[in-house]
Amino acid sequence: MSHSTAPSLRTVTLDDVRGARKMLSGVARCTALEGSRHLSRIVGAPVQLKCENLQRTGSFKLRGAYVRIAGLLPEERAAGVVAASAGNHAQGVALASSLLGVRSTVFMPKGAPLPKVSATREYGAEVRLHGQVVDETLAAATEYAHETGAVFIHPFDHPDVIAGQGTVGLEILEQCPEVRTIVVGVGGGGLAAGIAVAVKALRPDVRIVGVQAAGAAAYPLSLAAGRPVSVDNPVTMADGIRVGRPGEVPFGIVGELVDEVCTVTEDELSAALLLCLERAKLVVEPAGASPVAALLSRPGAFEGPVVAVLSGGNVDPVLMERVLRHGMAAQGRYLAVRLLLADRPGALASLLGALSVVDANVLDVSHVRTDPRLGLTEAEVELHLETKGPAHCAEVERALREAGHTVLD
Which entry of 36, 50, 59, 61 is annotated as an active-site residue? Predict the structure, then answer.
């Protein structure tokens, strides 16, 4: 393990990953590999899910954070560590520091989900809320490191962090020796790089596919340019992989060892999260569901057996509600419809009766009778419905029109 606190482009080797695994013994769990019959049918080959969402702190981040902090010199440990994160890295650094007896300070954005802020504090870190976006938070953490001498723990751009994340790859090879493809989400690239180092050294025939959210896909641009390239204002619900620029160290490894980096849409991420919850009975955050989203979007592109790495399960309940509803809508299982209704007694009851005939479950009704846009005898109704798929949505809309209602949206 490297003891340098300065940015390093030193490569990461299989021996580094093996050393990290010894260091993590009794600290990080060897997480389960769970088969998915549903995904296997879709892909046409066996699919296994590597459940890092069940890791301590709820994500793989503990692995790299622990190895990085454990490798510090005594005087560096005495100075304490500092990190900037909206969630998973924050919790990994907090727990790793507590286990190693090192003082930790974690800067988080002011808008960070309260459950993640609370968990980070409970793991032992001093939490400071600063800035509205992670870039502002990162700047504050860097300034704090310069002022106090605390060691900045980068979430992905350090060889020791990458070595720690690579232990996931060693476990996959032991748990599924016949694996042919590993699919993993990519933000800064630390997890994908670490897995690639471990797996390609032992099984160069295994194909490794990285997955990015389309709205935060810095790696395809960077790989094409031959250097890390920034994406301005990365936007995606998958905050765990919402990174605007690849790390220097993981970029070199990903470019050399990862076979492909593909992208998935927000609809595909939502559908994947919903599938993990309904079919695998696993709570997975959007970033953790990105490999499943890739399998769903291109089922014939992956040679089996396939291992999809579910990198984390720390999802804010408010976001979960929104994402699940989005995922249901993407599958035609949730329909929002706005229509005009005659403003007379019994009209709303008649509308709801028409919906009951086609077996649409009404979740919410909004009824507007006074609005300058409406005529004297008109009312506007917005319905949120639970439906059974695209064909059922079309049937519902047809039934509303046949009942004489004017569908606006």
Answer: 61
